[in-house]
Amino acid sequence: MSQIELINIKKQFENTEIVKGVDIHIEKGEFAVIVGPSGCGKSTLLRMIAGLEDISSGELKIGGQVVNHVSPDKRGIAMVFQSYALYPHMTVAENIGFALSLQKVDKQEIKQRVKEAAEMLELTALLKRKPAELSGGQRQRVAIGRAIVKRPQLILFDEPLSNLDAKLRVQMRAELMRLHREFGSTVIYVTHDQVEAMTMAQKIIVLNQGKVAQVGKPMALYKQP
Ligand code: ADP
Ligand code: ADP
């Protein structure tokens, strides 16, 4: 049984079908990348997995259970967006710990988990700063910290590096891959950047006009004519 299964998933906005019957299986611990041109439906697909968008038809299974109507906070998923949406008036530590405080996690436990996330992301020296006092790369690391502190079984990334400059992007790719190795959770990562997809993915899903065009390991896809 795969951890994540999309079975003939479709999405209609008004009368237009945006996602046209998508089947995807993702294994536990896998780093899967969905790549495709702008407008092909990547974000919509990710938002349906997260529960931020209704599924028009088809089944979404997580751990073998159909979760089409399970609320976002009960899916064990964290999502990192392109725009970081940090809370400007909170420190880095408060931003990272906020989701846990909403869940009424014990204060000492929050402190410990924020500390661990900050160490993984090399943010320890910045915990008392506000988002305005951080660089773009540092802000993106805080956004990732907010996701991993919840210890989700699945992390969704929606073009998380596209606002960063080229050098930082390459550095953050390596950091995300290291984090995935250490953390071991399943990742679905959306990008329009083929190089990013080839570098990071264990499995690549090529989406085109709302349909899966190809699925495979990066090298296998690369070798095709
Ligand atoms: P991608 O992430 O691949 O760039 P999106 O999933 O964001 O693609 O969008 C796919 C298509 O769906 C686009 O044509 C977009 O305009 C359309 N779309 C996305 N969200 C909505 C919405 N809420 N209402 C109507 N159309 C939408
Ligand atoms: P205010 O300062 O008016 O109280 P909030 O604390 O609600 O505003 O939000 C501050 C910032 O955090 C805003 O830029 C908003 O977009 C962002 N934000 C609000 N809610 C969330 C959320 N659930 N997840 C991520 N970002 C959020």
From TrEMBL:
- Name the Gene Ontology molecular function terms of this record: ABC-type maltose transporter activity; ATP binding; ATP hydrolysis activity
Q: Where is the ABC transporter domain?
A: 4-225
Q: Name one GO cellular component term.
A: maltose transport complex
Q: Which UniProt key words apply to this protein?
A: ATP-binding, Nucleotide-binding, Sugar transport, Transport
What's the name of the protein?
ABC transporter domain-containing protein
